[in-house]
Write a structure and sequence with these properties.
Oligomer: heterodimer
Strand order of the largest sheet of chain A: 1-2
Mean pLDDT of chain A: 86
Helix content of chain B: over 70%
Strand content of chain B: under 5%
Radius of gyration of chain A: 23 Å
Structural class of chain B: mainly alpha
Radius of gyration of chain B: 29 Å
Distance between the termini of chain A: 58 Å
Number of strands of chain B: 6
Order of helices and strands of chain A: HHEEHHHHHHHHHHHHHHHHHHHH
Chain lengths: 517, 683
């Protein structure tokens, strides 16, 4: 690791490109945006290749003290690296996805996406609490613009809802952060991670953070902004919203709440488990009855994110690593699903499921991709969705078999709503004339879908590439939580095997099943 | 070599599926079929080496998969006697089904897709049986589920096929819920998901207890039961069986391969693979036996009333799987595997035979419109006849019997010998053997004997009307070239002449007939004989109980002869009702209308599930959405807030009707202000 400020460069390139886009014509703006995002992606790859797995926790660190305690401090660990990779990977695809679909104010649109990219990278690499907060909240502003300017018919309502929800939470989090700084006397995140806050204070801080992060996540019952935002957002907006913005909440959990307030996390884990269990069942059932494709996928996102939160609060290696893999997997797969919706939306300009049907006939390549992502979404082994779901549920089981049971019902409901969606859109007789006229994927759409498909399969077959950089960080968090981890409440531990009685002819289990202790 | 067996089908599936436009349908068919025949040719030597006693269990690691803390597993291929049995079953039946589909699917425009799915299925099934850890088994488990879903819904324009496909997947997922929880629990208890390690440690866990969802239960019992729920889903056992009859919407070769010979036996395979676990819990074994016996009975009763030829065979499959489970429950895992092995041959034969009939009868599947086909399609007739002799278990004790004779009698004798609940299972099995004989002969008599009843069939009328019934789909254009066939229509045949199927369909029938006749006789020693069995199964971790097998061979003579007797009664009854006195069934239905309705409607499981699960799921979903999200959360949340603010201040009204940037800007200003204030104040 040289002293080369690669993170600052990654922040600067999209920011500079954003300014350039504002003054460029439509064609040029598109090219600038694509070029800048591809460069950022390449830089990300370089960073991944240079990342020293098993090396120091924080790498590529940079620090420049500004006024007061506020400093430009950057640095990443494995989790941040993976989430940055997710952002820089999705961004060029988002630009490609909006290549033809966006026709008005192209320069501004591209600038918004580039600003968004800067902010996303900044969120994941900020090492100063206030710097983090600024990035964290600012990320929503380009999203407001994207929904508000290029959104659908009811965009004002959606943007307004988005605003109201997030504002309330963020104010509480800001207050909590100020209190933390006052208590610990530093804004340096690595230091704060090891600072032991008084237990009572932890509870309040935890609740304040929770208010903000639960909205971002989003957790039930503060999830209702998400379906509206998705429905109104343009395709690429939905891709980035589902792909990266939804990960901010979970990132906040594992980066801040859990290691900084371990005692409160242990005390209040029942809130997280409770809300997650409700969310899995509730939102999956709601997804089943949707008639709008984007709403359906949005609700399914809430259900997936609920497994993430439950997995994180399992307080063990499998649960957390699984949750992180779901975050990455969901980032890729839901972005792909939203793009799949976008592909046909561009052709027919409706998201009504019933307006389609029989696409397998005239769009076979599309049907294959859509099937792959559907399967990844419902967690078919061999795809990314399975690895994450399996690991996190295995971790959750260790914490509580009840929670694991309820969350695992998600695999049944998930299969039901996704296959039901697929059937109505892709299968069936091709009867409608306008649907018949829809051509199959063009090269640009191939270029978006193929990388997403490759990553979804890669993560499913050989997830080690993604798990390895994060392993050490998860171990650190688990170790930090270990003292507070609730002692295996009665139903966790396997009883000590009694000496096997009667080594008889056949196995002679002394089974008294059903007997409550 | 095992890598070639497993991955050739995958390779073929990818080439045929993704490259179909580049290579064309003929090449796609050739590649997939060739790959499968190669796999089959490589599998038989492995199996035979185990039969001869020269096989060694081995594990080949392909790729690292996941490691997360203590939870680590690889992509591995395990070969031992148990796997070898499955290898030959899967690759052989699959290869023959591929070949058969050349003829059966000839007119279908989507053949490459079909062959790609078949090969993909075979790959997933092979991954399942070669798994050395529970997670890879689950991979195969879900993979075959996907292939099954795709193949049931192969004719995706048919709404009924789509519905059946989704049903199959979702019902299987219910079973998978149990399987997954079982894996989690196993990992928690044993700290590993590697099958050999679990099985080695399982006896040590006997007698321990674990808490599960608030109850303290015997560890091994709850783990086995959770895993068994998975097996019930995949093997269509009572309660989770509803998808299997509907799965008949798929093309018939699919039914033969997936829903008779291979995939549905995965549950039996799983119980056998994990047999040392089940051996540690009497309760779990009892449940396995009970579920098997009840399913066996239930499905056989339904099969006696169905008219659709494929549904009869589907319920028959369900029933035969029940036999395998109650053998496993009785501790006779060798017998269960033996029946799995022989059943694969004769049931695939019956399905492919049915396919040949359907092909000849122009996609008519209703046996009420068959009759007298034995002279028209003689090879199919004789193949079906051999299959029926095999499934009904015809044989003379001590001389020779068809495949099912050895395996079914092996199960019944083992059940009897195991004592206790096994004796009850034995009697259920005997009664089901009678039902099996009845419905199987009923199928043969209705289809091949009696007088032709084709005229009433719409499919046949359609074919006759179109003239060239060999190529019906080509001739829809409405040419007026055909002559008036109705004029020379014979009574009952409508002038239709069924044709024997092409050679590509007949070869598989003939080869499978050989299996149906000799598979039992040839391989009974390694599967169920005490000494030979012990040698064969050693190294496969199968809990082979030589004492039980010994006892099974020592049962009283009447036990050995009862199955044959009830088979003969069933044959007589079927002959009496469907050949000698054809008014008898109608009279029976009139007499016992209620019973008939109950059986004909499959014990009303579908209706029940619809009322209890499907409808409420949608209703509750709608309730949560409208009442929950929109009328509660939004009303008191953001919308309520808006109304409040709106009522309070004109400024707010202006803000709300203003542009979104307004909000964003105000928010940003607020944040910056707050942050600077805080820094000045506190820092």
């Amino acid at each position: 690791m040289s002293g080369f400020p690669i993170l600052s460069l990654m922040l600067a390139i999209p920011a500079a490109a954003a300014i350039a886009c504002l003054f460029a014509g439509d064609r040029l703006a598109r090219l600038i945006a694509l070029g800048a995002t591809v460069v950022a992606f390449v830089l990300g790859c370089v960073m991944w290749a240079q990342f020293d797995i098993g090396g120091p926790q924080w790498q590529f660190t940079e620090r420049a003290d500004l006024f007061g305690r506020f400093s430009w401090a950057l640095g990443i660990d494995g989790m941040a690296l993976m989430l940055i990779m997710l952002s820089v990977f999705l961004m060029p695809l988002c630009i490609l996805a909006s290549w033809d679909a966006i026709k008005s104010r192209v320069g501004l649109y591209m600038a918004m996406f580039l600003v968004m990219e800067t902010i996303m990278i900044g969120v994941f690499c900020a090492q100063d609490l206030l710097l983090f907060y600024i990035f964290f909240e600012a990320g929503l502003i380009p999203m407001y613009f994207i929904i508000g300017i290029w959104g659908g018919a009811n965009r004002k309502y959606a943007a307004y809802k988005f605003f109201l929800y997030t504002l309330l939470g963020s104010v509480l989090m800001l207050i909590a952060m100020i209190a933390m700084i006052a208590e610990a006397g530093t804004t340096d995140i690595p230091t704060l991670l090891n600072y032991d806050f008084p237990v009572e204070m932890q509870t309040w801080l935890w609740l304040a953070f929770f208010a903000s992060l639960a909205v971002k996540m989003p957790m039930w019952p503060v999830h209702t902004w998400l379906p509206d935002a998705h429905v109104q957002a343009p395709t690429a907006g939905s891709m980035i919203l589902a792909g990266v913005l939804l990960k901010l909440g979970a990132y906040g959990f594992i980066r801040f709440m859990m290691p900084m307030f371990p005692d409160a996390s242990a005390q209040l884990m029942w809130i997280v488990f409770g809300l997650s269990m409700v969310a899995v069942v509730y939102t999956s059932l709601v997804a089943l009855v949707q008639s709008d494709m984007k709403k359906l996928i949005a609700y399914s996102s809430v259900a997936h994110m609920a497994i993430v939160t439950a997995g994180l609060f399992a307080f063990n290696q499998q649960g957390m690593e699984g949750a992180l893999i779901i975050m990455l997997s969901h980032g890729v797969v839901s972005a792909a699903l939203f793009f799949c919706v976008g592909v046909i939306y561009d052709r027919l300009h409706t998201r009504e499921i019933d307006r389609y049907g029989g696409l397998a006939v005239n769009m076979p390549a599309y049907a294959i991709f859509f099937m792959l992502f559907t399967m990844a979404s419902i967690g078919l082994p061999g795809t990314s969705g399975f690895v994450g779901e399996f690991l996190s549920l295995a971790g959750i089981y260790e914490a509580s078999s009840w929670v694991a049971f309820v969350c695992t019902t998600g695999i049944i409901l998930g299969a039901a709503y996704m296959l039901y969606l697929y059937r109505r859109v892709v299968f069936g007789e091709l009867t409608k004339d306008d649907v018949k006229a829809m051509p199959d994927l063009n090269p640009r759409e191939w270029a978006v879908l193929a990388p997403l498909a490759a990553v979804a399969l890669w993560m499913g077959v050989y997830p080690e590439s993604f798990l390895a950089p994060m392993r050490g960080d998860v171990t650190t968090v688990v170790a930090r939580l270990a003292p507070a981890k609730p002692a295996g409440d009665a139903h966790l531990a396997a009883g000590k095997p009694q000496p096997a009685k009667a080594q008889g002819e056949t196995a002679h289990g002394s089974s008294h099943a059903g007997g409550v202790q | 070599m095992i890598q070639a067996i497993v991955f050739l089908p995958l390779l073929a599936a990818l080439v045929a599926g993704l490259g179909q436009r580049a290579i064309g349908p003929f090449a796609a068919k050739l590649i997939t079929t060739g790959a499968l025949f190669t796999s089959a040719a490589l599998s038989w030597p492995i199996f035979l080496s185990f039969v001869m006693g020269g096989g060694e269990a081995e594990v080949v690691t392909v790729l690292h998969w996941v490691s997360s803390g203590a939870l680590q597993f690889n992509w591995e291929l395990r070969v031992d006697a148990l796997t070898a049995v499955m290898l030959v079953v899967i690759t052989t039946v699959s290869a023959l089904v591929h070949l058969y589909s050349w003829g059966y699917m000839e007119e279908d425009p989507d053949q490459p897709r079909f062959f790609a799915y078949l090969s993909l299925f075979t790959f997933a099934m092979l991954m399942l049986v070669t798994a050395n850890n529970l997670v890879q088994m689950f991979f195969g488990w879900e993979g075959v589920g996907l292939a099954s879903y795709l193949l049931i819904g192969f004719w995706y324009k048919k709404p009924s096929a789509n519905a059946a496909a989704i049903k199959a997947f979702v019902v299987n997922r219910v079973g998978d819920l149990g399987f997954m929880l079982g894996i989690f629990g196993t990992f928690l208890v044993f700290g590993t998901v590697s099958i050999p390690e679990i099985l080695a440690a399982a006896p040590g866990m006997a007698g321990s207890t674990i808490s599960f969802m608030g109850m303290r239960l015997d560890t091994m019992t709850i783990l086995c039961l959770l895993l068994f729920i998975g097996a019930m889903g995949k093997s269509a056992q009572l309660g989770l069986h509803t998808w299997l009859p509907d799965a008949m919407e798929g093309p018939t070769p699919v039914s033969a391969l997936i829903h008779a010979a291979t995939m549905v036996t995965a549950g039996v395979f799983m119980v056998c693979r994990l047999s040392p676990m089940f051996e540690t819990s009497d309760v779990a074994q009892g449940v396995v036996m009970f579920v098997g016996a009840v399913t066996c009975f239930f499905a056989a009763t339904v099969a006696t009333t169905q008219w659709d030829i494929k549904r009869v065979i589907a319920y028959s499959t369900c029933s035969q799987l029940g036999y395998m489970f109650f053998a496993a429950g009785a501790g006779a895992y060798g017998a269960a595997m033996f029946h799995l092995f022989t059943h694969a041959f004769f049931k695939a034969l019956l399905f492919l035979g049915a396919g040949s009939v359907i092909h000849a009868m122009h996609h008519e599947q209703d046996m009420r419109y068959y009759g007298a086909l034995r002279k028209e399609i003689p090879i199919t007739y004789w193949a079906m006849m051999l299959g029926t002799l095999a499934i009904t278990g015809v044989g003379i004790y001590g001389v020779f019997g068809f495949a099912g004779f050895y395996s079914k009698d092996g199960i019944l004798e083992a059940a009897f010998a195991s004592g206790g609940g096994g004796v009850i299972a034995f009697w259920v099995g005997i009664f089901v053997a009678f039902l099996t004989s009845f419905y199987s002969w009923r199928l043969v008599f209705l289809t091949f004997h009696g007088k032709p009843r084709w005229a009433a069939s719409e499919h046949i009328q359609h074919a006759v009307h179109d003239g060239h019934h060999d190529h019906p789909s080509d001739e829809h254009a409405g040419h007026d070239t055909h002559h008036d066939h109705a004029a020379d229509a014979h009574e009952g045949t409508a002038g239709y002449h069924p044709h024997e199927s092409p050679i590509t369909m007949l070869i598989p029938l003939i080869l499978l007939s050989v299996g149906a006749v000799f598979a039992g006789f040839a391989f009974k020693y390694p599967f169920i004989y005490p000494e030979e069995g012990l040698a064969f199964w050693s190294g496969s971790m199968l809990a082979f109980d030589e004492h039980l097998m010994h006892a099974a061979h020592e049962v009283p003579l009447w036990v050995k002869w009862t199955p044959f007797t009830v088979m003969a009664i069933g044959l007589f009854l079927a002959w009496n009702s469907y050949i000698r006195n054809t008014t008898l069934p109608a009279r029976f239905v009139a007499q016992f209308g209620l019973l008939h309705q109950f059986l004909f409607n499959k014990w009303y499981f579908d209706e029940l599930y619809n009322i209890v699960f499907v409808k409420p799921a949608f209703a509750i979903g709608r309730f949560f959405w409208k009442r929950g999200d929109e009328q509660t959360i939004d009303r008191f949340g953001p919308d309520g807030m808006a109304a409040l603010v709106q009522g309070g201040s004109r400024l707010a009204v202006r803000l709300q009707s203003g542009y979104v940037y307004g909000y964003a800007f105000v928010m940003l200003l607020g944040l910056v202000g707050l942050a600077s204030w805080a820094m000045v104040k506190f820092l």
